[in-house]
Design brief:
CATH superfamily of the largest domain: P-loop containing nucleotide triphosphate hydrolases
Helix content: 40-55%
Number of strands: 13
Number of domains: 3
Oligomer: single chain
CATH topology of the largest domain: Rossmann fold
Length: about 475
């Protein structure tokens, strides 16, 4: 691949100690040499690969010195893109970086498109598509779990799993093809049963990757969470405490919150996409009634409910209405206002929940943990974080080298490959001929290949890399 010399600012566009301007492509060293004057007057074109040189960036039109810099030279194919790459380490002022970028463009380079450096690495065979996508996911990691997964993918853990599956599928395809071409030397009598066992193993491995990836979406995208409870239970105060700001209006007037309010917060290793809902109660107020209906709809679409119970007041019908929303959801009971004299106990709340949901109270207590809470004590957030850690991290993952979380595109291809493998099993158990097995085996082979970027449409490649930042 060669589409000219490209350049971009590879660090944040802000005032900082260091800024990096990256240049890549055939002729990148020569372009950089036009504006770089090293000590001793040695041309950059003579620099060895993977060396670092001090010098000045100079405007060749008038000799003005722009900055004192360090220039690193990495010659292809032993570079990130597989091409000749120069990186200018300058002082990190926004104007300085932009001025250097402008000089490069005036002397033979062009501005890189978003993700073009990584795209060139992919096109030049330096990495497959799954590893290229891991670069962007590494940059956008929001927690340690997502970071570890991105690093593993960048190192090729996911790619190796996919390549291993494809190699084993290819072996079966080659055997079927050889047997069909030369039946005298290949015995297929017991082969369908043997293939059945192998394909079942392929399916088990693929479904495990699918399961991990679907669960892992919560670490990448956050947990959609609704705060529910009756009016004045403390829902908005809880939202404000978790978000660290006055996101919701808090008054002692029931029905203050009349619509859903969405805020993204970080709690420990997890991100919560919080929705503060209107207090659940039977109301004749037209506007508040709409808010209550929206609260019910919001609770249907979430993965977690924080059920807020006011310990300072007796339970009533509004608590029961709110408890209906936790049916079938992961839930944490926020036993709130514990700094006041309690009127309702935790056992009372569990009893009410059991009555509403039709389950034994002991089952409710096992499935719904509780946190003693007061929105005036920030230490309560740590207690909630500990419960969420148990619920979503410890119970779902053992983060060893075997756990892989695919992104949405990769997950779709895994599902398509798995569907094709199930069709192979169906064909085997329907006593179809071996050439039918091969059709769906080949289809699964292709979908696994799409994960790595083989035979993938240019339009999809364009879309994937358009989501990258400019200097990557």
């Amino acid at each position: 691949m060669n589409d000219g010399v490209i350049c971009a600012i590879a660090t944040g566009i802000t005032s900082a100690g260091i800024g990096i301007v990256r240049v890549s492509g055939e002729g990148s060293v020569e372009v950089t040499d036009k504006i770089f004057k090293g000590r001793g007057g040695v041309s950059a074109a003579l620099f060895d690969s993977h060396t670092l040189h001090i010098g000045n960036i100079v405007d060749p039109s008038d000799g003005t010195v722009i900055d004192e810099v360090l220039l690193s030279v990495m010659r292809g194919p032993k570079s990130y893109t597989g091409e000749d790459v120069c990186e200018i380490n300058c002082h990190g002022g926004t104007y300085v970086c932009r001025r250097i970028l402008k000089l490069l463009c005036e002397n033979g380079a062009r501005l890189a498109e978003p993700g073009e450096f990584t795209r060139r690495a992919f096109m030049n065979g330096k990495m497959d598509l799954s590893r290229a996508e891991a670069v962007q996911e590494l940059i956008s990691s929001a927690n340690d779990i997502a970071l570890k997964n991105s690093v593993k993918q960048l190192k090729g853990s996911f790619s190796e799993k996919i390549k291993d599956l494809r190699d084993r599928i290819l072996h079966e395809l080659a055997f079927i093809e050889a047997a069909l071409d030369d039946p005298e030397h290949y015995d297929l009598d017991d082969y369908p049963e043997e293939l059945d066992g192998k394909v079942c193993a392929f399916i088990a491995e693929t479904e495990e990757m699918i399961r991990c990836s679907e669960n892992g979406k919560i670490f990448k995208d956050g947990i959609d969470t609704a705060i529910v409870g009756k009016p004045n239970a403390g829902k908005s105060s809880l939202l404000n405490l978790l978000s660290g700001r006055e996101s919701a209006i808090v008054t002692d007037v029931p029905g203050t919150t009349r619509d859903t309010l969405e805020v993204n917060v970080r709690i420990g290793e997890l991100c919560l996409n919080l929705v503060d809902t209107a207090g659940i109660r039977d109301t004749s107020d037209k506007v508040e009634k709409i808010g209550v209906e929206r609260s019910g709809k919001a609770a249907e679409d979430v993965e977690l409910i924080l059920f807020v119970a006011d310990s300072s007041l007796p339970l009533d019908e509004n608590d029961r209405l709110a408890a209906e929303l936790i049916r079938g959801k992961r839930c944490v009971l926020i036993y709130n206002k514990t700094d006041l004299n309690p009127v309702t106990s935790v056992e009372d709340v569990y009893g009410m929940m059991a009555s509403v949901l039709g389950k034994e109270q002991v089952d409710i207590k096992e499935k719904i943990p509780y946190v003693m809470f007061t929105t005036t004590d920030e230490a309560c957030v740590d207690k909630l974080s500990a419960q969420l850690d148990i619920m979503f991290i410890q119970s779902m993952y053992n983060f060893d080298e075997n756990v892989i979380m695919a992104n949405e595109r990769q997950l779709n291809e895994l599902k398509m490959a798995c569907r094709s493998l199930y069709l192979v099993i169906e064909a085997i158990r329907s006593f179809m001929t071996e050439d039918i097995f091969a059709i769906d085996l080949l289809d699964s082979y292709k979908h696994f290949g799409y994960i790595l970027g083989e035979e993938i449409d240019d339009d999809l490649v364009d879309r994937i890399f358009s989501e990258f930042c400019m200097g990557k």
